[in-house]
Specification:
Rossmann fold; alpha/beta; binds iron/sulfur cluster; globular; four-stranded parallel beta sheet; 3 domains
Length: about 300
């Protein structure tokens, strides 16, 4: 009997599709993907691929970004309910009102946001380049940062530039508490503690290094240390262990599990390839406007 993975790989070829999976996806989903990575890296690949269909195993805003950067491709998301609660914490209407209340302000928007919110922004950023984006923001203008207050706080501290922060956050990263870092250090003395900047500032203060998902992967690959405590979504443990079989990784806590990311399953990927849906599209006017702040970030 053919397994689900075998059937979907067969169908992938027939549909001329590429499977892109975020680092937070289920291990078995990462294992059938052509490429595993962070949201922006994957969207860049989506823009370059020769494939006609992009099956994006991640959350809705990521598939939207792929659709904006690859407008001639069909972008499928295995489960349309895979949204990002943080992205939903700021609506276009709220951002429009915030801008109106701060005339002349420059809006920096984390890529974890809807296309419609990006369309109202001056520049986008990722967790990897937020500090650089804030550093190069125009002088003499108020800087508004949406939606992640934790990433914004971190970027402000690192760049020394004051930011007005939207009160959004990632519920999964927010679950990680400073006392968990203290307990993990006691349990694994000598291990390096790496934290994602979506974590609370109180937790980041305990980290040896703060980095994006790709940054954490690079750090562990290059480090001579043998043990690491990872304060990020637990899906990260899979690529870390796969790439570093001689090193040991401990999640800061098992509860840092994003339920939205885990909605994409092998069966849903197979169904998406069979039915060629659910498709994620962005209205052309929004896509055109959202492309500009993404392009400005990519040009940095
Ligand atoms: S881990 Fe957080 S930021 Fe990422 S998709 Fe889940 S809720 Fe959104």
């Amino acid at each position: 009997m053919t397994s689900v993975s075998e059937r979907l790989l067969e169908l992938k070829k027939k549909r001329n599709a590429i499977i892109l999976a975020h680092n937070y996806q289920l291990p078995e989903v990462q294992d059938v993907a052509d490429q595993v990575g962070d949201s922006l890296g994957l969207s860049r690949l989506a823009a370059k691929t020769e494939a006609e269909v992009i099956l994006f195993c991640g959350v809705h805003f990521m598939a939207e970004t792929a659709a904006i950067l690859a407008p001639d491709k069909k972008v499928l998301l295995p489960d349309l309910n895979a949204g990002c609660p943080m992205a939903n914490m700021v609506t276009p209407r709220q951002l429009r009102e915030w801008r109106t209340a701060h005339p002349g302000a420059y809006v920096i928007t984390y890529v974890n946001s809807s296309a419609a919110v990006k369309a109202l922004s001056d520049i986008c950023c990722t967790s990897a380049n937020a500090v650089a984006v804030v550093q190069q923001a125009p002088e003499g203008r108020e800087l508004l940062f949406v939606p992640d207050r934790n990433l914004g706080f971190y970027a402000s501290q690192k760049s020394g530039r004051p930011l007005s922060l939207w009160n959004g956050f990632c519920p999964t990263h927010e679950r990680m508490l400073p006392e968990m870092a203290v307990a993990a250090r006691e349990k694994h003395p000598g291990a390096i503690l790496l934290a994602h900047p979506e974590c609370r500032p109180g937790l980041l203060a305990h980290a040896d290094a703060v980095a994006s998902t790709t940054g954490i992967l690079d750090y562990c690959l290059q480090s001579n240390a043998k043990e690491f405590i990872i304060a990020s979504e637990i899906g990260m443990l899979h690529p870390l262990r796969r790439e570093n079989p001689d090193k040991v990784f401990y999640p800061l806590t098992e509860v840092a599990d994003c339920p939205n990311m885990k909605l994409n399953t092998l069966e849903k990927i197979l169904w998406a390839l069979e039915d060629m849906e659910p498709e994620v599209t962005v209205p052309p006017d929004i896509a055109r406007q959202a492309f500009q702040p993404i392009k400005r970030m990519l040009e940095l």
